[in-house]
Design brief:
β3 and β4 form a beta hairpin. This protein is α+β, with helices and mostly antiparallel strands. The protein contains 13 helices and seven strands.
Length: 297
């Protein structure tokens, strides 16, 4: 084999690991594959003679690519309908599936990760899930090692109570969801503030935003592509969401609006420590069709 073939073979040895890193940072199979492909392009243009630890070098490159992608996605959030609800790990196909499932991250945790700033998310994933030292993460996020440690610590506090698997304590979480819906229907702003985390983040796809405006007179919440903070989210739902009912979305507690036999809108609610930290609103028909919805009577 020539030098290019040797380099390609070494890259393939690391592909599963790189996909696992990228998937956990980005929450999307497609974006993870794009990040890994970009890492290969950069590797093929680099003189690797001075690279002592190729796996570490590639992890750093993928981390930087993912950070750029997270920042770009956040800046153009309103232009990307249907991007907010993370893909299920179970949808990953191909030979890398075993690696991605080995330390699987459930949809609830991915939704919590979506509430983090890009640098916090990357620091947490690289350090806590892949044991990358802070002094190696620091240059990626442009911080000192101590500041990077603080980024990961803040992120860890946010996700510590999030379920990492598909079967959280649904009795307690259902009580939180039902309290949220009752307070919304009753216009009880104080009750909403009690059940919402102070830093709660709401994200809605473009179809949901447009539909909400159309049905505002029928009690639909006036959604925006992104809202942050308990007060803003509480005001959005106060006196609204009258048609929403509790449901499981891919095994995660949330709520849906059903018309006839079809789900029109889905609200994926992430509950941590008996408070809602994330609300993802999906109305795009294609994405709704991929959700497994079970109504809770």
């Amino acid at each position: 084999m020539d030098e290019h073939d040797v380099l390609a073979a070494r890259f393939e040895e690391n592909r599963s690991h790189l996909l696992a890193v990228a998937f956990r940072v980005l929450g999307s199979r497609t974006e993870a594959e794009d990040a890994v492909q970009e890492a290969w392009f950069r590797l093929s243009r680099t003189d690797t003679g001075q690279v002592d630890n190729l796996a570490g070098w590639l992890t750093t490159v993928v981390g930087r690519v993912c950070l750029d992608m997270l920042r770009a996605k956040r800046s153009r959030r309103e232009e990307l309908p249907g991007e907010q609800l993370p893909e299920r790990v179970a949808e990953v196909d191909g030979p890398e599936q075993a690696a991605l499932l080995a330390d699987s991250v459930g949809i609830a945790l991915l939704v919590v990760l979506e509430t983090l700033a890009p640098a916090e998310r990357l620091a947490f994933v690289l350090h806590d899930l892949f044991a990358v030292p802070f002094d190696e993460i620091a240059p990626i996020v442009g911080r000192s090692p101590e500041a990077t440690r603080q980024l990961a610590s803040r992120a860890r506090r946010r996700v510590q109570g999030a379920p990492a698997g598909p079967e959280p304590d649904q009795h307690r979480q259902r009580a939180v969801v039902e309290a949220f819906l009752a307070a919304s229907r009753g216009g009880d702003l104080q009750a909403l503030l009690t059940v919402l985390d102070p830093d709660v983040v709401l994200r809605a796809d473009q179809v949901a935003v447009t539909t909400a405006k159309t049905y505002a007179k029928q009690g639909a919440p006036l959604l925006a592509a992104e809202l942050r903070g308990a007060e803003a989210v509480a005001k959005t739902f106060s006196g609204r969401a009258r048609a929403a009912q509790p449901a499981l979305l891919d095994g995660v507690l949330g709520a849906v609006v059903v018309a006839g036999s079809r789900t029109r809108v889905a609200f994926a609610l992430t509950v941590v420590d008996d408070r809602i930290v994330g609300i993802d609103v999906v109305a795009d028909p294609e994405r709704l069709g991929r959700l497994s919805v079970t109504l809770l009577r």
